[in-house]
């Protein structure tokens, strides 16, 4: 309807700049008034195809009917009691569901918090308590949040860590099996990376000092890096053999996004603790820590919690999300999205050597742009393609340690004609570049 951003959005942007610090960035400065069905609509009446889902959050769609219905009823009944003061059933229902649905048929416990970072922090607290050890091992390209501990666990300096130190102690980083950039090639990647990681743990830290290994089954902010097959099972096995708590950070990959309910299932990896958030509650703030009962039950009464954790509105939203995933078979929908996107992007890669790598699973797909004929990261090309897509009404996000990855996270309910239209815009933007 207008240029992007239009006049109303520009006016609002000026107010934002006067009222909000620049540390809070903006990917695409259009102000949203309505969203749903894979489309966001802005204050100037423009409709944009949504390939971001608010960073993998609105997987069931924006304002999904089951979420809206449950939240509307709940908001009229009661809005908060604090679960630690006087509990309510929906919190327990969410925990029961997660205990049942997460990988592994062992006895589990779950508790609820407000954000992904808070979930990861709690996983580390519990692992330390349960093992009596302190060290935490994380990986190259990892992202775990923006609090003091979780930004320490995060790999990338700019923008997440720069000038925010000193960082939390006893955090150690080891190599990740990144097939596209593994020096000796993708064939040897899993084995060599696992060997290096385990060697660093045993020789530099001491396995007996390690409380937890924390890993994303597919690195999200790091650029949708799917570790070479065999890497995750090898690391999990090492943890089991050495009494280390294996924590899968599924904050971005969870809830059907990758074509399985949780990404760990792809290689049959069963984590000791799994952290979830983003896709859990259709946009209401909720996160969860789910783990083996014998680990979770170690912490003394009152040692965990928070005022808002498992807020009743967010719990109702989560129950609506889980119903929607099941009833609409969104696991299969995610796979179908991957089946549509991956071949289209691979044929684009054959035409344009600026596309170095096409990767991902289900509806968590990315392309890595390079200087043609090399593996040199090309963040400028990513910025140019993003700008063009935004101008043409396709909302896309970037990622990657080198800022050279375009990532696609469409809502799992997106109609196929919109998916096709979005891909068409993307193809045109790359062809023009
Ligand atoms: C987004 C994310 C986090 C942090 O979640 P917040 O809700 O933003 O605190 C942690 N881990 C992973 C893998 C994420 O993608």
Task: Identify the notable features of this structure and list them briefly.
single chain; 433 residues; alpha/beta; Aspartate Aminotransferase, domain 1; Aspartate Aminotransferase, domain 2; 7-stranded mixed beta sheet; 4-stranded mixed beta sheet; 13 helices; 15 strands; globular; binds pyridoxal-5'-phosphate
Describe it:
The protein has 433 residues and is an alpha/beta fold. It folds into two domains: 7-60 and 329-432, Aspartate Aminotransferase, domain 1 (Alpha-Beta Complex); 65-327, 3-Layer(aba) Sandwich (Aspartate Aminotransferase, domain 2). Helices cover 38% and strands 16% of the residues. The protein has 13 helices and 15 strands. The strands form three sheets. Strands 4-10-9-8-7-5-6 form a seven-stranded mixed beta sheet, with helices on both faces. It has a four-stranded mixed beta sheet with strand order 1-2-3-13. Helix 3 (65-77) runs antiparallel to helix 10, helix 4 (89-101) packs across helix 10 and helix 7 (189-205) packs parallel to helix 8. Pyridoxal-5'-phosphate binds at residues 115-117, 120, 143-145, 216, 220-221, 249, 251-252, 277.
Compose a concise summary of this entry.
The protein has 433 residues and is an alpha/beta fold. The chain is built from 13 helices and 15 strands. The protein has a 7-stranded mixed beta sheet, with helices on both faces. Strands 1-2-3-13 form a 4-stranded mixed beta sheet. It has a 4-stranded antiparallel beta sheet with strand order 11-12-15-14, covered by helices on one side.
User: At the first level of CATH, what is the class of the largest domain?
Assistant: Alpha Beta
N-to-C CA distance = 24 Å
Strand content: 15-25%
Major β-sheet annotation = 7 strands, mixed
CATH architecture of the largest domain: 3-Layer(aba) Sandwich
Overall number of strands: 15
Number of helices: 13
Q: State the secondary-structure class.
A: alpha/beta
Share of helical residues: 25-40%
Rg for CA atoms:
21 Å
Give the low-pLDDT segments. none
Instruction: Look up the CATH topology of the largest domain.
Output: Aspartate Aminotransferase, domain 2
